[in-house]
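Data deposition worksheet. Section B asks for the primary sequence of the deposited chain exactly as it was used as input, without tags or linkers unless they were present during the calculation. Section C holds the resulting structure in token form. Section D is free text for depositor observations; keep each observation to a single sentence. Incomplete worksheets are returned to the depositor.
Section A, Depositor: J.P.
Section B:
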Amino acid sequence: MSFESLGLMSELQRAVSEKGYVAPTPIQLQAIPLILDGRDIMGGAQTGTGKTAGFTLPLLQRLMDSVTPENGRRPIHALVLTPTRELAAQVAESVQIYGKYLPLRSTAIYGGVNINPQKDKLRKGVDILVATPGRLLDHVNQRTVNLSKVEILVLDEADRMLDMGFIHDIRKVLALLPKQKQTLLFSATFPDEIKRLAKDLLKSPALVQATQSNKAPELVTQIVHPVNKGQKRALLSYLIGSKNWKQVLVFTRTKHGANRLADQLKEDGVTATAIHGNKSQGARTKALADFKSGKVRTLVATDIAARGLDINQLPHVVNFELPHMPEDYVHRIGRTGRAGNEGIAMSLVCVDELGLLKGIERLTNRDIPREVIAGFEPNLSIKPEPIHKGRDKQQQPGRKSTGKKAESSRNGKRPHFKGRSNNQAKAQNRSRNQSQNRAGYAS
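Section C:
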């Protein structure tokens, strides 16, 4: 199959050819004809499957059939909502690349940067607007954007927007849109809240599924390196240096951890920079540009970057820390092995993370091979410690306990084992599970 066979106009085919694409991907084969026919879409697509072109190309063609300036102005006819600034910038770039031979205007608006240049572009009029929900509502409140003429709505990475708490903002935006419109919803996963949103929003949608949900990219080689927690940083520096990696994307769980690791790598002589939500948009843009250009070898990121980074032929992804949610692992490693290229994704796993590793293997339905690096053998006698998600909720110094927790323990459920407390029974179960986990840890 070719892009011509999908019914795309010659201007779009020319842009696609110049981009170097010859044949459409499975998601493009399914989605493009349906979108050209005006159907609502509920699309399931993993990262790196060509999803952006799958909705951008037919969107551009449909707008060419309907867009006409009104009273010298250009109202917004298509709105694309994304969860992160990086993804908004990436989608906007794709719109410009594929629409380079069309007389359509587009722009992206997102937070973290001065709002005034965005106002200037909006006043001149745009046909296609790519936006993050929060900044879009800022413009709505300042009356610099009008959504009453939107004909096509795209919700990109809808599950990620829900994860980031955007559901209320999304519903506010939806209330500003015309009832009659074409809606395209793309999501890597379909939790219940996404299904409820789709039921309210989509009209007789066509379901397109490029790959099995939560399936790891086929061209990505996955491997686990068991290691003590305190040796992770040394092992990472060793791997980068000894294998002469030129470009590696490293994921941590926290923003502070990303900053700390980037600083430590620089102390080891490895050029590195960090990218996360607390960085200004200017700093994030510079970090990504330096990484893409080769000025720095290592980009340390939190999961905010997992779905928004598009780096051509990225060879290596490292999970310095496993994510709390196994789905995020799939999105992380999907930064490599894109567009038919091969990639390597490795995870540095300490004994504390064995439960997280099990969850990932259960989700992806595969056992990830283990390889112990000589000189970094893990100490199997170390007992795992709990990994706190978010803030540590332990009692702060100086605060008195209310006593409610102790009272609950006394009046709670009966012990599972006669003659022992619940805590003792749980401790024994935990010890038994940990012993079983460690047995296969370094095998």
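Section D:
Residues 220-364 form a domain with the Rossmann fold fold (CATH 3.40.50.300).
Confidence is low (pLDDT under 50) at residues 391-422.
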